[in-house]
Amino acid sequence: MSLTVAELSTAEFLLRRLSLTYSPISGWITTLEPTRAYMRQQSHLQIDDLRAMENWHVNLACTHGHYHPDDAEFALASGKLIVNGANISFILRSHIQQRRDLAVLANAVLAFSAFLQWTRPNGDSLEMLLPVSMNDLDRHVKARCLQTLGNILPLRNQYQKAQLKLEEAHLVFIGNLLGAAQCLRSACAVPAKCQQHVAGAESV
């Protein structure tokens, strides 16, 4: 928004006094559904404001998605991404469907999917991205997307599909010995995970 910090603060204070906004948690401002419904009927976002909002969410995914649970920044990053997760997922999927800046978008999809691997495993955005962006992605980025998807799928009990993605990533990781080795290691571990899953189901 093209407002100064002081103007934003004044606007937020006024909206709160009028009971049009509230803060369920510190630093987060939202509204009740009747207020949102009324605003959707009475006004429409300007295209520049819509693009600014979309870019903010994409940049949020790029900035905070690559942290691991053992990183000191992970807790803060996790809080920001979980709160905005539904919006990020919606915007990423919309951009993929519209084929908008796929080479740039891939980094955001990769970062957010890597974060989801540690929290709420979901590779849907990667599965949407890969088929439509094969000619737009750098080889290394494509390999990392396949590798991340291959690491997520076993967490959703999709073992055979995971092994195929990891084997494909290994082939794409030409010239990157570390990436290729990681894919081989993960691919070799998938059958063991599958056997453990089957044994656990049989014992039940």
Task: Characterise this structure.
The chain is mainly α. The protein folds into three domains: 1-43, no CATH class; 45-119; 138-204. Helices cover 71% and strands 0% of the residues. It has helices at 5-17, 33-42, 47-64, 74-83, 85-97, 102-118, 124-132, 139-152, 159-172, 177-203. Helix 8 (139-152) runs parallel beside helix 10. Mean pLDDT is 84; it is low at 197-204.
Main sheet specs: none
Using only C-alpha atoms, the radius of gyration works out to 21 Å
The computed structural class is: mainly alpha
How many domains, as an integer?
3
Shape: elongated
On the 0-100 scale, what is the average pLDDT? 84
The amount of helix comes to over 70%
Ends apart, CA distance between termini: 55 Å
What is the total tally of β strands?
Answer: 0
Number of helices: 10
Proportion of strand residues:
under 5%
What is the chain-wise order of helices and strands?
A: HHHHHHHHHH
State the low-pLDDT regions, or none: 197-204
